[in-house]
Amino acid sequence: MRIELVTGDITTERVDVLVNAANERLARGSGVCGAIFAAAGPQLDAACESLGGCATGDAKITPGFELPADWIVHAVGPVWQGGGAGEAALLASAYRRALEVAEGVEARSVAFPAISTGIYGYPLDAATEIAIATVRSTKTQVERVHFVCFDQSTRAAYEAGLG
C-alpha cells in the first residue's frame, strides 16, 4: 500500500472512496463532515438517513453523488473523553472498518481526513499515530491511501508519524 499526504480540501480528492468523519446519526455536521455534505449535494442527506445511523467505531457507505469520488464511507470516530473510555480502540476500529467497507466496493484508492480531531477533540498527535498504524496493519486490497490534511499543523503531525 502506498500512503500519501495531501494538504487541502478532501472534497476534491480523485479517489474511489472518500472517508467522512461522521457522527452516529450520519447527519450533516460541521467541519469536514459539513464540507462533504455540501459538496456531495442534497441526495447525501436522504442516503444517510436511510442507513439508520452508525455506531462509534463502525462505518457505512453511500454513493459519492456530486463528489469526484465514487463512494463515501462514513466512519464514526469517538469523542475524546480523556483517553480512558476506550477512545484509542474505537478510533482504530473506525479506520479499519472504513478500509473494510471500501474493500467491499473493490476500491483501490481511499482518502481519509483526520477522524475525531476536530470538534470531537481527539489530540492530533495521538490520533495520527493510531490512523497510520491502523492503516498500515489492516490487510486490504486498497493500493493507495491519502491522508488529507486540512492545515499545516495536521500535515506536520502526519509527517512525524510517518517518520
Describe it.
This protein is of the alpha/beta class and 163 residues long. The protein has one domain: Leucine Aminopeptidase, subunit E, domain 1, CATH 3.40.220. Helices cover 37% and strands 20% of the residues. It contains five helices and six strands. Strands 1-6-5-2-4-3 form a six-stranded mixed beta sheet. β5, α4 and β6 form a beta-alpha-beta unit. α3 packs across α4 and α4 packs across α5. It is globular and about 40 Å long. The two termini are 16 Å apart.
Overall pLDDT, averaged? Answer: 97
Order of strands in the sheet with most strands: 1-6-5-2-4-3
Distance between the termini: 16 Å
- Strand-pairing-aware structural class: alpha/beta
How large is the count of helical segments?
Answer: 5
Low-pLDDT windows of residues: none
In this structure, how is the largest beta sheet organized? Answer: 6 strands, mixed
